[in-house]
Specification:
The complex is a heterodimer of chains A (about 270) and B (about 270). Chain A has about 270 residues and is α/β, with parallel strands linked by helices. In chain A, about 40% of the residues lie in helices and about 25% in strands. Chain A is built from ten helices and ten strands. In chain A, the strands form two sheets. Chain A has a six-stranded mixed sheet with strand order 6-7-8-3-9-10, with helices on both faces. Chain A has a four-stranded antiparallel sheet with strand order 2-1-4-5, covered by helices on one side. In chain A, strand 4 (about 60-65) and strand 5 form a beta hairpin. Chain A starts with a strand and ends in an 8-residue tail after the last helix. In chain B, about 85% of the residues lie in helices and about 0% in strands. In chain B, helix 1 crosses helix 8 (about 200-225), helix 4 runs parallel beside helix 8 (about 200-225) and helix 8 (about 200-225) packs antiparallel against helix 9. The chains are: A alpha/beta (about 270), B mainly alpha (about 270).
Chain lengths: ~270, ~270
């Protein structure tokens, strides 16, 4: 059985009394590509932020390579983070640095490699994502797809064992999005990385995933293989896969609010 | 909410703010050796030098102009009063002591609050909004060490230098006034100034400038770090950074001036 790299157990998150994640448990094995699906506001990004240790949960644990990231020391957390690469939805490139300086930064800060070695490694990382000639550009000069790829190059700079992507295809045209999918598959195949992708792009998810998980209103409603997911009869999953909209305008609450705004008697009865 | 609750809430918030500032300041102190040239990581000192250029070199022209104006104004105001008592020569004492002890450090700090304090808040606020601070954390890098401390080290070096420049320009402006009104020779004016300046005044002025630098950097960075939302929140943080640091600089000035007064008196 493959080693569990990320283990989320009973993760519950509340903000000001509002429950955002509800008792979520999920294991991700070494070398696996797990895609976390869910609609907007379902808690995907919140879960990701807890997995990378940016926030502390109300209850539950997140273990990365066996270490509880909310109860370990600051040094241990740093050591865990060195084994993880994160590509944010907004790319989060440092705007005051060129693309190659962005990629060089973790190599300069966290290794004792000589400058020429760092230069070569930086070029290799940028070339791997198709940005070998764009190292001197500033982030503002890049297109959306190039920014995403630069963020991937930076996230892989230290050859992490775990790679986390937040909405890698969001806002990209289908061709660039497909290119990113291939890049994720290449990284998995070439470096045996464990990859967690947060997404709501179905085509991309089914292309890259080994397994899929789905969050709905803060609860994990399914964790399954691609085929089992496609064949699922679970109503919420079917609605998501079949792109059926929520009947928002017909809901009782919306109808009552409209009646109230219109000043009709008997509103909110 | 009654009045007592409102006052209690405000006091708790103010204490929490000062506590957070203190914790941030201590973290910066701990990280400082890693920014300095011989003890620090490669490249980190360069960031501090860039900050020094932004705070010091770029800020010097406005500080020079403001100090010359303030020196001239102080000399004219004092001159018009002291002339009535036939004590015009004491203008030189007032300008030299006033600038080295008080006007130089305070004027410099207020200008840097407006110029650099707001820039720190806006820069860090933007980094928060664009997830750059989160990205640093996930890359096992400490934003305090990487972003805040170079600014702190730079301000601790440049603010005393700017304070000296401010005092020099203010005193020179006083010299111009004295030359116009009494035709005093410049060499004699300088001799008189050197005799009237007490080294203790210079040290207290420089000590104040270090305290002001600590306040400006920490308040600016903290206001940036507390940004939640979008571009409007960044704008509000810049405003808040200037207002709070100006307020705290003046409070600290009053506090330390009182302490120095009591120490000197004792």
């Amino acid at each position: 059985m493959a080693e569990v790299m990320i283990s989320v157990d009973g993760l519950t998150v509340e903000y000001e009394g509002k429950r955002v994640l509800n008792d979520v448990s999920l294991d991700i094995s070494r070398g696996e590509v797990m895609v976390l699906l869910g609609g907007s506001g379902s808690g995907k990004t919140t879960m990701l932020r807890h997995i990378v240790g940016l926030e502390k949960p109300t209850s539950g644990t997140v273990r990365v390579r066996g270490a509880d990231i909310n109860r370990c020391s600051a040094e241990e957390l740093m050591a865990i983070r060195r084994t993880m690469g994160v590509a944010f939805q907004e790319c989060a490139l440092f705007n005051s640095m060129s693309v190659e300086e962005n990629v060089e930064l973790p190599l300069h800060e966290l290794t004792n490699l000589a400058d020429p070695v760092i230069e070569i490694m930086t070029y290799m990382k940028l070339a791997a994502v198709g940005l070998g000639d764009s190292g001197k550009l500033m982030p503002q000069e890049l297109s959306g797809g190039m920014k995403k790829r630069a963020a991937v190059a930076r996230a892989t700079a230290l050859d992490p064992e775990i790679l986390v992507f937040d909405e890698p295809s969001a806002g990209l045209d289908p061709i660039v999005a497909a290119g990113l999918d291939e890049l994720i598959l290449f990284l998995k195949k070439a470096f045996q990385m464990t990859i967690l992708v947060v997404s709501h792009e179905l085509a991309s998810a089914f292309r890259i995933a080994d397994r899929l998980a789905m969050l709905d209103h803060g609860s994990l409603i399914a964790v399954d293989s691609k085929d089992a997911f496609r064949a699922s009869t679970q109503p919420r999953i079917r609605q998501f896969l079949d792109r059926v909209p929520d009947p928002i305008a017909e809901s009782t609450a919306v109808q009552a609010h409209i009646r109230e705004l219109a000043g009709l008697a008997g509103a909110r009865t | 909410m009654n009045v007592l609750e409102a006052v209690g809430n405000s006091v708790i918030q103010a204490l929490a703010y000062v506590g957070a500032l203190t914790m941030q300041f201590l973290s910066e102190l701990r990280a400082s050796p890693r920014v300095l040239p011989l003890t620090g990581r490669r490249g980190r000192w360069k960031t501090a030098i860039r900050q020094m250029a932004a705070i010091g070199v770029d800020g010097l022209p406005i500080i020079a102009i403001m100090s010359v104006c303030a020196g001239f104004i102080l000399a004219m105001q004092m001159g018009s009063e002291l002339r009535r008592f036939g004590a015009l020569q004491y203008v030189m004492d007032v300008v030299s002591v006033g600038f080295t002890r008080e006007v130089g450090p305070l004027l410099t700090a207020l200008i840097i609050c407006g110029r650099s304090g707001s820039a720190f808040s806006a820069e860090i606020g933007t980094m928060v909004v664009t997830s750059e601070i989160d990205a640093m954390k996930t890359m096992a890098m400490d934003p305090i060490e990487l972003v805040f401390t170079p600014k702190y080290v730079a301000a601790m070096i440049t603010l005393p230098c700017l304070t000296i420049m401010s005092s020099t320009f203010g005193i020179l402006a006083g010299g111009v006034f004295m030359y116009i009104t009494t035709k005093i020779r410049f060499a004699m004016y300088l001799r008189y100034i050197f005799n009237s300046i007490d080294l203790r005044d210079v040290w207290t002025g420089l000590l104040k400038s270090l305290i002001f630098a600590t306040i400006i950097v920490n308040v600016g960075c903290m206001e940036g770090l507390r940004v939640r939302g979008g571009a409007d929140a960044v704008g509000r943080s810049a405003t808040s950074g200037v207002v709070r640091s100006t307020y705290l600089v003046i409070l600290a000035d009053a506090f330390f001036t009182a302490i120095f007064y009591l120490v000197h008196k004792g």
